[in-house]
Amino acid sequence: MKNKFIYFLKVVIAIILLAIITITGAYLWPTSTLHPPESFKKTIINNVNIIDVETGNIAYNQYVLIEKSRISKIDSTKINVSDDALIIDGAGKYVIPGLWDMHTHSNQHSEWLHHPLYIANGITSVRDMSGQLNKKDSYWVGSKERLQWNKDVENNSRVSPKYVLQSSYQMDGEKAIPEESPNFFKLENPSQVDSLLQFYENEKVDFIKVYQQLPKDTYEALAEKAPKYGLHLAGHKPMFLSLEEAINLGQKSFEHGRIFMYECFPEADSLKNPNHWETYFSKSKAKIVQQFDSVQAKELMRLMQQENAYWTPTLQTLKFEANAHKNSFTNTNNLKYVTQVRKKLWWKYDTDYNKEKNLESEGNSVSEQFFEASKKQVAMANKIGVSIMAGTDVTDSYVFAGFSLHDELHELTKSGLTNLEALKSATIVPARFSNKEKDFGTVDIGKKADLIVLNKNPLHNINNTMDIYGLFLNGIYYNEEKLTELKNFTETAARSFHMNVKALISLVNSSLIRVQFAD
Questions:
Q1: Any keyword Ligase (predicted)?
Q2: Which of 47, 310, 338, 448 would suit a FRET pair with 350, their CA atoms being 20 to 30 Å apart?
Q3: In sequence order, what are the residues at sequence separation of 6 or more whose Cβ sits closer than 8 angstroms to the Cβ of residue 58?
């Protein structure tokens, strides 16, 4: 009996040691590196049609000269240069500016799991709405990482979109911050605001990401003092003060499709009580939609337009909640680009929760009603003149880097935007919001050569933005073969054992993730 026990113990120890060795080996296993294509001092696109995303006009049969990273000449006659230039036949093709995704979340594995898919789908610039606190996180990235990625793109040594407007970590009050972090991150009172702003100014951050549960007096202090540090506020509608107050206090962009629904129904003040707003919201979602006050909403939209506040509806998040119970939605081919760790430990929980809620309802679920209502509100806001920006909320459930931006453009057109207006929301509007229209947003001489060459005209059908012939990032040309390679790279990385181990360990070790899940 003793010998059997000893044998059993040895087997268990051997299995444990083997598991430790396997996991350690996978974690330390080197990751593959993507390299940009060959660079040329001069590139010419011959005989291509250029779409003006500001007017919708098309300049047919144009010749475009790109020198290093900028457009140096656009002409209706053939451009002759030396033999070592790269020549691209643009006959029958259409050129638009590179697309922008203005609401994303990057992490320590984005280099393998997100960046290739952005570029393969024509997204050349993104705004990351997440960040770090006072130390490097094992999961989230911060301004230091993103600014280094930008330098690498400028040096043509990295495949990555440009990261515009660096974000702080999400500010949501003390419950959202790990206990061991400096107290000023918790923003329990207005006296901590200067310390927070000073810290993020030193981190070369551009804006404070505000979340829902900041105390009203702290939010007001943030809004008042942020400009003195060269920062602005962007993010969720704060729950404990009105949307009108937040707009007048200068919040520069508002995220997600619910901002007007939170505000425009008879009992909206019940959502502003810090003690029970979540309980009230969970039991009153149907009432919020059914008693929506469109007159009040239009007044707030006019105020947004007057105060130049932008809106990023991220319709993809509400679309997921509305369709989580439908196999036709959840059985998508894009799942091959997502690690098993994320699918099983994050997305499955989210999907099961929303599926159960949707199946409880007869007919359209409340989530479906929210989704349809948000699209109507996008149409209202656009008609009034609110600046709409395309954003997706990567890496939320069933939001896919790159691919979902095209889905967002499609949903924006279904919401009432024209194809041209949808293109604007992902090109010139975000460039203007970011104060970068001098370099980006349109196809013009002197601007950066971040361009997409499309096989078909997106003004005829917005889905033609997916039909990509080639792409320029910082003047470097990615042909169809290279774009396919980028997709294959992420597919391989996502299913690899070592990447899944790295993703799991980064999640487990992140104090920021632990606090998020606990909350």
A1: no
A2: 310
A3: 49, 50, 51, 52, 94, 457, 459
